[in-house]
């Protein structure tokens, strides 16, 4: 009853922002992402009748009570599905540089879903895995798949039509995603809390909902046509709209800091110089930039000149979940 799986982080091109059902993690809108090659989580789950409670080891340290509670709640869903009530030891390693500005909850819950279900003898397809991963963290449902991924919001109240599926593989279109680190401080408002407050109080949220589905469809068309300019333009505008909703919330908030503006300005400047680059921002001040692989060094050099920029990580499209043997895991770590 032991299995190991690896899942990579993803970055949203069209954002998931707002839930219509908090306990099932059902989104208000469809979203679109790229799974990244560089950053991933590797998780081993071992169920045993000898255990009386779950144990969670994260990056070789016993995790906090709070983290363990999240994992136990999630494993309870997996136990319910399998009809097996055993407790588990979960051993997770995040290969995400400290505070690189990439959330590890997406790769974390995707890897946990794959490893836990496999350990219990369930051989599930990508769609089923995605529906389960979604219930750990919304964006995790997209990390089941590699390359360009869509998560259709679905309509059903039980969430059975809300899952991610591949749009185009990681080998189909090589683009660069630069993660620009401005600060490693934990954010004041979690994305979960931020999206909830925005849905409940922001008068701008209706504007978000009125336009995001069209952004989703246009971005998907741009991916299929490998139209970089179109994809970048829609992605950047979609991020601006998401962040605009937070300014209308009560109380209002923003995830940006002054460095965020510095980077946005430099991206605009690069475009005036003929270098195609576009930014997106998640629930934090760090910025991610899309550019052509042949220009990634130029973009990186330009951004490193900004005093508020601490580091830049260059990523490309990466794979979906993989199951590893014990020896594979030992070999790598
Ligand atoms: C996204 N974010 O699409 C959006 C953009 C943040 C901004 O998904 O509450 O950690 O666990 O479902 O998935 C981050 O939210 O939230 C996120 P929960 P999650 O990537």
Task: Describe the secondary-structure layout.
Elements: E1 2-14, E2 19-21, E3 26-27, E4 31-48, E5 55-58, E6 61-62, H1 65-82, E7 87-95, H2 105-119, H3 126-134, E8 148-151, E9 164-168, E10 176-181, H4 191-201, H5 205-224, H6 228-247, H7 258-272, E11 277-281, E12 287-291, H8 296-304, E13 311-315, E14 322-324, H9 326-332
Parallel strand pairs: 5-7
Antiparallel strand pairs: 1-4, 1-14, 2-3, 4-7, 4-8, 5-6, 8-9, 10-12, 10-13, 11-12
Bound molecules: ligand 2P0.
Structure description:
This protein starts with a strand and ends with a helix. α2 (105-119) packs across α3 (126-134) and α5 packs antiparallel against α6 (228-247). The protein is α+β, with helices and mostly antiparallel strands and 333 residues long. The chain has nine helices and 14 strands. Strands 1, 4, 5, 6, 7, 8, 9 and 14 form an eight-stranded mixed sheet that branches. The protein is globular, with a radius of gyration of 19 Å. The site of ligand 2P0 has 15 residues, from α4.
């Amino acid at each position: 009853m032991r299995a190991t799986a690896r899942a990579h982080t993803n970055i949203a091109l069209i954002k998931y922002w707002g839930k219509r059902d908090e306990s099932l993690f059902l989104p208000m809108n469809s979203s679109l992402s790229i799974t990244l090659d560089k950053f991933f989580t590797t998780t081993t789950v071992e169920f045993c009748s000898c255990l009386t409670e779950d144990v969670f080891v994260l990056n070789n340290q016993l995790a906090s009570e709070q983290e363990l509670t999240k994992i136990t709640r999630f494993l309870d869903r997996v136990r319910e599905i399998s009809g097996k009530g055993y407790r588990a030891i979960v051993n997770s390693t995040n290969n995400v540089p400290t505070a690189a500005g990439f959330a590890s909850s997406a790769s974390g819950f995707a890897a946990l879903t794959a490893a836990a279900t496999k350990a219990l003898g369930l051989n599930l397809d990508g769609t089923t895995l995605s529906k389960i991963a979604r219930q750990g963290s919304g964006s995790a449902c997209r990390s089941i798949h590699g390359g360009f991924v869509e998560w259709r919001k679905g309509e059903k109240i039980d969430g059975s039509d809300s899952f991610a599926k591949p749009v185009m593989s990681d080998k189909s279109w090589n683009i660069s995603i630069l993660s620009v680190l401005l600060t490693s401080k934990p954010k004041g408002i979690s994305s979960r809390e931020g999206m909830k407050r925005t849905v409940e109080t922001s008068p701008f949220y209706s504007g978000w909902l009125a336009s995001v589905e069209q952004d989703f469809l246009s971005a998907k068309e741009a991916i299929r046509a490998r139209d970089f300019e179109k994809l970048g333009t829609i992605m950047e505008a979609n991020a601006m709209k998401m962040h605009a909703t937070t300014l209308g919330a009560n109380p209002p908030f923003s995830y940006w800091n002054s460095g965020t503006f510095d980077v946005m300005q430099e991206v605009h400047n690069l475009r005036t110089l003929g270098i195609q680059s576009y930014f997106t921002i998640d629930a934090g001040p760090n910025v991610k930039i899309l550019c052509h692989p042949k220009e990634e060094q130029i973009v990186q050099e330009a951004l490193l000149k900004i005093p508020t920029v601490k580091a830049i990580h260059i990523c490309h499209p990466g794979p979906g979940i993989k199951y590893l043997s014990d020896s594979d895991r030992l070999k790598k770590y």
